[in-house]
Write a structure and sequence with these properties.
It is a single chain. With 423 residues, this protein is of the alpha/beta class. It is built from twelve helices and 18 strands. Mean pLDDT is 93; it is low at 417-423. The protein binds flavin-adenine dinucleotide. Residues 32-38, 55-58, 62-65, 67-71, 73, 205-206, 233-237, 239, 241, 254, 256, 286, 298, 336-339, 360, 362, 364-368, 370 line the site of flavin-adenine dinucleotide (FAD).
């Protein structure tokens, strides 16, 4: 078979096509961006009776939400002690509870809404390739155990059996995690938001925002929306719609390659329990075997669209080093997408003007977190005085933002070197 782009275009449940906006409309809330953040916000608002219009430049799930590794992981990028140190005991504890509970929230939502997306809560392995990383993984596990999270440490034979490779020194097995088909999930959220009363428009880019008294008017090429509130949920695809927002994050390109369905023997050897794995370290590699027994493995990608495994030989070579049995197996798909990194590696929530809410920057952990943040954002709009479990910060542009491609390259090289040296 010739190599194709996004595997999920082939494997996902069909979506309800979202038509373009046609004319002028009014809403309580207009949401810009049809990924997990925007769709979950629209769903939770509509379920609570708000009139919601969602605008997506392409179709729901077109962005990172329909292209990612499909790993539903618990927690923020930082360990829970660090979160409490950075934000204090009260807010830090609430952030950890929110992020630690995010996979349960996602799997619960999928069940409640009956979304068909191959969801499996078989756990996440966070694996260490060096002694230094192993010490870090042990420390993380200890911190989560103190918070009664269902995590345990694996090593030696048990770890080799769980992964099918002897590469790792140690791993934290976290029963909260799992996987899903992310494009099916995004399409399921869009369908549920529509059934709850939200209007979801596709092929409709928001191109301007203007304050009209205490209201907001969002312009598109085919009509306008006037609303009391705006939610901006554009993450790694943020454009110039809101001044300064694009420069408050660094867009990173991730890439994933997928094999043809594996033979029975290989499929039993690689991740036999069908948990998912990501490596602890500067350059994260992550993988899983999906419900049709294909291996999907991802890592950093080139800063452009890709459409063939030949464009990411480092990922394919790495997989073959992990499991030499893969040599000769066909790689059928490769694709990429943009995620949003923040300087402090926390998701960012901003309220840059009255009635405007922004949420982005999941640092590669958005399947669970973006869904959860959508519910938080809806709650913030519906019940403004109730607690909000993430810090709301002032939007800050990253200094020398224009240099980010160089900085990213340097960080990748640094990461490669330190990983090779086992630091
Ligand atoms: C290759 C890759 C692998 C990943 N793997 C994982 C993983 O395994 N686990 C995990 O937890 N996370 C993973 N992530 C991260 C995760 O996918 C994201 O954090 C999450 O999908 C972000 O959702 P979002 O809704 O905020 O943004 P997106 O899904 O990117 O959606 C933003 C949307 O906004 C739209 N948009 C932008 N500007 C406008 C405008 N002006 N008007 C209208 N629409 C607009 C875009 O078209 C886009 O559809 C991965 C990301 C990538 C790219």
């Amino acid at each position: 078979m010739t190599a194709m782009t996004n595997l999920y275009d082939q494997t996902a449940e069909p979506g309800v096509p979202a038509p373009p906006l046609d004319g002028d409309a009014r809403a309580d809330v207009v949401v810009v961006g049809g990924g997990f953040t925007g769709l979950s916000t629209a769903l939770h608002l509509a379920e609570n009776g708000a009139r919601v219009i969602l605008l997506e430049a392409f179709q729901p799930g077109w962005g990172a939400s329909g292209r990612n590794g499909g790993q539903v992981n618990a927690g923020l990028k930082h360990d829970p002690d660090v979160v409490e140190r950075d934000f204090g005991e009260d807010l830090g504890r609430r952030m950890n509870t929110l992020a630690g509970g995010a996979p349960d929230f996602v799997f619960g939502l999928i069940k409640r809404l009956g979304i068909r997306c191959d969801a499996r809560q078989n756990g996440t392995l966070r694996a260490a390739i060096s002694d230094a990383h192993a010490a870090h993984v042990r420390e993380s596990a200890e911190q989560w155990r103190r918070r009664h999270a269902p995590v345990e440490l694996l090593q030696d034979g048990a770890l080799e059996r769980a992964t099918g490779t002897g590469r790792y020194r140690q791993a934290m097995f976290d029963r909260r995690g799992g996987d899903l088909n992310p494009l099916s999930y995004a399409r399921g959220l869009a369908r549920a938001a529509g059934l709850a009363g939200a209007s979801v428009y596709g092929g409709t880019r928001a191109v301007g925002i203007e304050a009209i008294g205490s209201q907001w008017r969002v312009a598109t090429r085919t009509g306008t929306i006037t609303a009391d509130r705006i939610v901006l949920a554009t993450n790694g695809y943020t454009d110039g719609l809101w001044p300064g927002l694009r420069r408050s994050i660094v867009p990173l390109f991730g890439a994933i390659a997928a094999t043809a369905p594996l033979s029975e023997a290989l499929s039993r050897a690689i991740m036999p329990e069908r948990s998912v794995l990501y490596e602890s370290g500067a350059i994260t590699v992550y993988y899983r075997v999906d419900s049709s027994q294909r291996l999907l493995i991802g890592g950093r990608g080139p800063m452009r669209e890709i459409d063939s495994p030949a464009a990411i030989p480092h990922i394919v070579d790495y997989a073959q080093r992990l499991w030499p049995g893969l040599r000769g197996v066909e790689w059928t798909h490769a694709w990429g997408g943009r995620l949003a990194m923040t300087r402090d590696q926390y998701p960012h929530v901003h309220e840059p003007a009255p009635g405007v809410l922004v949420c982005l920057g999941y640092n590669g952990r958005g399947v669970a977190m973006a869904t959860t943040m959508g519910a938080q954002l809806a709650n913030r709009i519906l019940r403004p005085t109730s607690p909000f479990d993430m810090p709301i910060s002032t939007m800050k542009e990253i200094a020398l933002h224009a240099l980010w491609p160089l900085a990213v390259r340097a960080a990748i090289v640094r990461g490669r070197i330190s990983d090779r040296l086992g630091l």
